[in-house]
Design goal:
α3 packs antiparallel against α4, α4 packs antiparallel against α5 and α6 packs antiparallel against α7. Helices cover about 75% and strands about 0% of the residues. By secondary structure, it is mainly alpha-helical.
């Protein structure tokens, strides 16, 4: 009797422990539901955090775009300066074209005399080249700003003085050299701002201007080549937005 009672008690305890640890028990199912709930809650929180992070990144990107647009905005004074710069460049190119026509004798045999016009163009070129360099926007560097402004003003002053009195010949040679240096600096500036692939005409102007320091003794046909390069440069400026002359952009407009 005691043996049967002991066996029954052992079976009861064994069954109770098994049912308690089996996944089908109510306690185990409750624990599983709690774990699943916590896991789902954590997953939702992770998704929310990702959405918040993505939203913040989008806001930052929008703010950067807005800042870029604000930085690239052109004021009235800046626009006036850029337009004046392009007009002075076009006038310089026109003077070079007149000198080129006179240099190759293109008008000979037609009865047209452009000697006076050619003389006026050679006198006006230092002033116009100096204005072009003085008005062109340059990188915000004190040395560059002072250097370009000084060279531009020197060309303007020498061009004005070259028409006065007994020092005309001496000042004329100096003003011509300063005008050449001013136009070379403008060509370098255009390459720096827009890239050589979009300003290949500046390579022509740089090479030809370097051979034009002596006005009375220069390489034949160098004036037409220089006038051609400067004319292409001036004509191309008509299609460029004003804001591209303020910040080096590698010609975003022409690249489109």
């Amino acid at each position: 009797m005691n043996v049967f009672f002991f066996v029954f008690l052992l079976q009861t305890l064994t069954f109770g422990v098994t049912s308690f640890t089996t996944p089908s028990s109510s306690i185990c199912r409750a624990a599983q539901r709690t774990t699943a709930t916590l896991y789902f809650s954590n997953a939702v929180n992770d998704d929310d955090n990702k959405d918040i992070t993505t939203s913040n990144n989008d806001d930052i990107a929008i703010d950067e775009d807005v800042t870029t647009e604000i930085d690239r905005s052109v004021t009235v004074l800046e626009r006036a300066r850029i337009i004046s710069y392009r007009v002075a460049m076009s006038a310089s190119a026109l003077c070079l074209c007149v000198l080129a026509v006179d240099d190759i004798g293109f008008m000979e045999g037609t009865g047209a005399n452009i000697d006076h016009l050619s003389e006026q163009s050679s006198n006006a070129l230092p002033i116009l080249a100096g204005c072009t360099l003085t008005l062109c926007p340059v990188p915000r560097n004190k040395m560059i700003e002072v250097g370009t402004t000084s060279l531009g003003l020197a060309a303007i002053v020498s061009g004005l003085v070259s028409n006065v009195g007994d020092i005309q010949q001496l000042a004329g040679s100096i003003s011509w050299s300063l005008s050449i240096l001013a136009l070379m600096t403008v060509s370098i500036r255009e390459i720096f701002y827009f890239g050589v692939e979009y300003k290949q005409e500046c390579i022509i102007t740089l090479l030809t201007l370097a051979l034009m320091f002596d006005y009375t003794n220069h390489v034949p046909f160098i004036f037409p080549l220089c006038a051609l390069g400067m004319s292409i440069l001036a004509a191309g400026k008509l299609f460029e937005p004003c804001d591209e002359d303020l910040v080096p952009s590698n010609s975003e407009f022409l690249a489109k």
